[in-house]
Amino acid sequence: TSAQKPTQPGPQTNEYADAQLQELVKKLRERANVYKEKLNDPVISSPEASPPASPKKPPAPPKEEKKDEKKDEKKEEKKEEAEAKPEEDHYCDMLCCKFKKPPLKKYMEYMKLPDTIDSYTDRRYVAWLMLVTIAYNWNCWFIPLRYVFPYQTPSNTIYWLAIDVMCDICYLCDLIVFQPRVRFIKGGDIISDRAETEKFYHSSVKFRLDVISVFPFDILYFFFGFNPALRANRMLKHNTFFEFNDRLEAIMEKAYIYRVIRTTGYLLFILHINACLYYWASDYEGIGSTRWVYDGEGNMYLRCYYWAVRSLITIGGLAEPQTLFEIIFQLLNYFMGVFVFSSLIGQMRDVIGAATAGQNYFRSCVDNTVSYMNTYSIPKLVQNRVRTWYEYTWDSQGMLDESELLEQMPTKMHLAVAIDVNFAIVNKVDLFKGCDTQMIYDMLLRLKSIVYLPGDFVCKKGEIGREMYIIKQGEVQVLGGPDGTKVLVTLRAGAVFGEISLLAAGGGNRRTANVVAHGFANLFILDKKTLNEILVNYPDSEKLLMKKAKVLLKQKGKPPPGPPVQQPRGLASLFGQKQETPKLFKAMLGGKGKEGLAKLLQLKKQQETQETQTEKETKPKEEEKKPVQPAAPSAPPAQKEKPQADAKPAVVQRATSKESLIISMTPSPRAGEGEILKVEIKEKEKK
């Protein structure tokens, strides 16, 4: 008896190890596909970072060099500690809070004057001009006052002289320190050389007036007494006053406010001069000598100022002049009042009109739009939405169309403004990451800003997509579901949608969902035509965007994730899954699986039985009549006529035909699509 061999157990598989091996194979395949794409198109960057180069070990220095290096390192550490200590010590404790206080050296460096000064951008120069302007106004207002009114007395002369000396010091510092450092423009170039700026200032008319304004006529006090009229030359420094006005208006956000204050100051100063002249005329005629002059009662300056206001503004109600001097003085006062007051009123009107020009333009646009809607009987609901759009756009932007303002600027300034305002938003878009920065700059100049009201449809499902949207401000909601009211996702500032329609090569891509503005939304729009015009000059960025477009289209075309497919176990995992039956054969079989094939076979059997019955019936009749007829072709005439009717020059048919079943193969009319399989089933004609 032969010994029976023990049966060996079947192969056993570990499910965990099997899953890990399949995952590893999947990753290796993906990696191979990525490298294939990298070889085909070098624009795509490698998914793996290149390993850093291993640092080479320097040769060991001798012992003496090591000691010197250690000493140098210790010295550097001590210097760093010494530099760090002052920064740490500059703290100020106040109200249980600790504030960092910069050292005195930083203050000194900031306050140190440069070799030359840019009068348009240096705020320190504007502050200095303000100080000189205060000194100038002191001289303009108080020199006439002290000369005419008896306010300067021997008891208070020392105080007047002290303030005069301070104003003269400001004039001298401006003449010696600041004005020679101011840059100037010559032939389109900004001259910043110290020697050139001094030479230019010394050759100007402004320098001559500044020198005359600080000329010390005050020395004559020792000969003629303390007469304020000797300081009249201080009022010649008017160029600095007007320069300060220009520089201050350039840096103010609402310059019209300062213009109104300045115009009011002009009016008050003219009234001040008129009051001084009236007191001088009253003193010349004699205080209280007639009804027209000042009577000497009350506050002399306020009484004279009141008379100057009523006379210069031509209010009337004043006493009649009595003497010839009084009549001439009053006539000149009236003439000057009409001219000055009318010019100041006109200037005030221009200032206020310029300040409210934008608001007036906005109101005129709204009024014209409302009158248009009323003319054509637009519903009130639509009119209210139009008014809401106007109000929100004006409140948020301060204008109706930003492009009108930016188009007035040069292209470089327009780009600089666009970068500061919109680059941070566009740079966050994943679609444009890796593209040329200059291409993004060009795109910023082409973006259009549009405001949507709450509930407005940004795009609707089924529309042809021709634009891409970038959310600048606000939120939008993507709607879906069976009734189109379910909120699928909410997009906020910096999000992008519609990029697939923009990058689709064939065009005609339809929107797949409704997008509605949730609240007020300000969006940037970039259309396909504009993007193509930009990408003409940036081929590398165009390739990168096309690659990203392919990835987006693949992700869009993927079916929704269903239940996980069970992986085959054991040796079955080595064989691939069974491929799906081609659609062409499904159409030929007329159904799914065996059902369609069974119906087709059953139809063929019915056709054969009908043919045998007709042959049996026709044979006896043919034998009786015995007509002489030509041999009939094997194929039926219907089949013969059909191909001739449909025949084309480049058509080749391969067919197996019966009376009621025709199967034919014809080349496709479109190049590159192969052949077309046609299956035709016809009922037998009854005789």
From TrEMBL:
<feature type="compositionally biased region" description="Pro residues">
    <location>
        <begin position="49"/>
        <end position="61"/>
    </location>
</feature>
<keyword id="KW-1071">Ligand-gated ion channel</keyword>
<dbReference type="InterPro" id="IPR005821">
    <property type="entry name" value="Ion_trans_dom"/>
</dbReference>
<keyword id="KW-0472">Membrane</keyword>
<keyword id="KW-0812">Transmembrane</keyword>
<dbReference type="GO" id="GO:0007601">
    <property type="term" value="P:visual perception"/>
</dbReference>
<dbReference type="Pfam" id="PF00520">
    <property type="entry name" value="Ion_trans"/>
</dbReference>
<keyword id="KW-0844">Vision</keyword>
<dbReference type="Pfam" id="PF00027">
    <property type="entry name" value="cNMP_binding"/>
</dbReference>
<keyword id="KW-0813">Transport</keyword>
<keyword id="KW-0406">Ion transport</keyword>
<feature type="transmembrane region" description="Helical">
    <location>
        <begin position="125"/>
        <end position="145"/>
    </location>
</feature>
<dbReference type="GO" id="GO:0017071">
    <property type="term" value="C:intracellular cyclic nucleotide activated cation channel complex"/>
</dbReference>
<keyword id="KW-1133">Transmembrane helix</keyword>
<dbReference type="InterPro" id="IPR014710">
    <property type="entry name" value="RmlC-like_jellyroll"/>
</dbReference>
<feature type="region of interest" description="Disordered">
    <location>
        <begin position="605"/>
        <end position="687"/>
    </location>
</feature>
<dbReference type="GO" id="GO:0005223">
    <property type="term" value="F:intracellularly cGMP-activated cation channel activity"/>
</dbReference>
<dbReference type="GO" id="GO:0044877">
    <property type="term" value="F:protein-containing complex binding"/>
</dbReference>
<dbReference type="GO" id="GO:0030553">
    <property type="term" value="F:cGMP binding"/>
</dbReference>
<dbReference type="InterPro" id="IPR050866">
    <property type="entry name" value="CNG_cation_channel"/>
</dbReference>
<feature type="compositionally biased region" description="Basic and acidic residues">
    <location>
        <begin position="605"/>
        <end position="627"/>
    </location>
</feature>
<dbReference type="GO" id="GO:0005886">
    <property type="term" value="C:plasma membrane"/>
</dbReference>
<dbReference type="InterPro" id="IPR000595">
    <property type="entry name" value="cNMP-bd_dom"/>
</dbReference>
<feature type="compositionally biased region" description="Basic and acidic residues">
    <location>
        <begin position="62"/>
        <end position="84"/>
    </location>
</feature>
<feature type="region of interest" description="Disordered">
    <location>
        <begin position="1"/>
        <end position="21"/>
    </location>
</feature>
<feature type="transmembrane region" description="Helical">
    <location>
        <begin position="260"/>
        <end position="280"/>
    </location>
</feature>
<dbReference type="InterPro" id="IPR018488">
    <property type="entry name" value="cNMP-bd_CS"/>
</dbReference>
<protein>
    <submittedName>
        <fullName>CNGB3 protein</fullName>
    </submittedName>
</protein>
<keyword id="KW-0142">cGMP-binding</keyword>
<dbReference type="GO" id="GO:0001750">
    <property type="term" value="C:photoreceptor outer segment"/>
</dbReference>
<keyword id="KW-0407">Ion channel</keyword>
<dbReference type="GO" id="GO:0005222">
    <property type="term" value="F:intracellularly cAMP-activated cation channel activity"/>
</dbReference>
<feature type="domain" description="Cyclic nucleotide-binding">
    <location>
        <begin position="431"/>
        <end position="535"/>
    </location>
</feature>
<dbReference type="InterPro" id="IPR018490">
    <property type="entry name" value="cNMP-bd_dom_sf"/>
</dbReference>
<feature type="region of interest" description="Disordered">
    <location>
        <begin position="36"/>
        <end position="84"/>
    </location>
</feature>
<feature type="transmembrane region" description="Helical">
    <location>
        <begin position="331"/>
        <end position="348"/>
    </location>
</feature>
<feature type="compositionally biased region" description="Polar residues">
    <location>
        <begin position="654"/>
        <end position="667"/>
    </location>
</feature>
<keyword id="KW-0140">cGMP</keyword>
<keyword id="KW-0716">Sensory transduction</keyword>
<feature type="compositionally biased region" description="Basic and acidic residues">
    <location>
        <begin position="672"/>
        <end position="687"/>
    </location>
</feature>
<feature type="compositionally biased region" description="Polar residues">
    <location>
        <begin position="1"/>
        <end position="15"/>
    </location>
</feature>
<keyword id="KW-0547">Nucleotide-binding</keyword>
